[in-house]
Design a protein that fits this description.
38% strand; 10% helix; single chain; 164 residues; globular; six-stranded antiparallel beta sheet; four-stranded antiparallel beta sheet
């Protein structure tokens, strides 16, 4: 792992450890679904204020991008920071190159729409668990990450549930 990847791993670990485990806003579920059939492929209980990292390979520059997102009480994701191996990728976000590891942002999304390809390498990291999104539904080209109320088939031990 290169120096940049190690820095990102250390910062991501700090973000996961620094997130308090007990706070208001319980009763949300982070879900990965197929947009066409609305089929739940994976779900995990979360709380408002929790942070997750979505990483992927930029298709133009071939560089890894890490996006730090915070879960908001109103069931939205707030993009609070971005990091990349190649400063040119920052132009996609409308940012100038910086010497900082993480560039702060404030963008909000109700749903994260992901185009999955063999080269995109989307990884969802939450509380030390890493989920390779391409393994959930190899036949799908797009997936959505959303926040919802818990379903009746949610695992009581809070483990990921696959309904495939």
């Amino acid at each position: 792992m290169g120096r940049g990847g190690l820095s990102a791993a250390v910062i991501c670990t700090i973000l996961f450890v620094a997130t308090p485990l007990s706070r208001a806003g319980e009763g949300l579920v982070l879900r990965v679904v197929t947009p066409t059939a609305a089929k739940v492929l994976w779900e995990k209980p979360v709380r408002s204020g929790d942070r997750l990292i979505l990483s992927h390979r930029n298709s133009v520059f071939g560089a890894t991008v890490w996006e730090c997102l915070r879960i908001e009480e109103n069931r939205t994701f707030q993009l609070i920071g971005v990091r990349t191996e190649r400063p040119a990728v920052l132009e996609y976000y409308g940012l100038e190159a910086s010497q900082k590891d993480w560039i702060p942002l404030d963008r909000r999304f109700k749903t994260l729409k992901i185009l999955v390809s063999p080269t995109s390498a989307f990884i969802l990291a939450y509380l030390g668990e890493q989920l390779d999104l391409s393994t959930l539904a190899p036949e799908e080209i797009s997936l959505e990450i959303e926040l919802q109320s818990p379903s009746r088939n949610m695992d009581p031990n809070h483990a990921p549930v696959s309904t495939r």
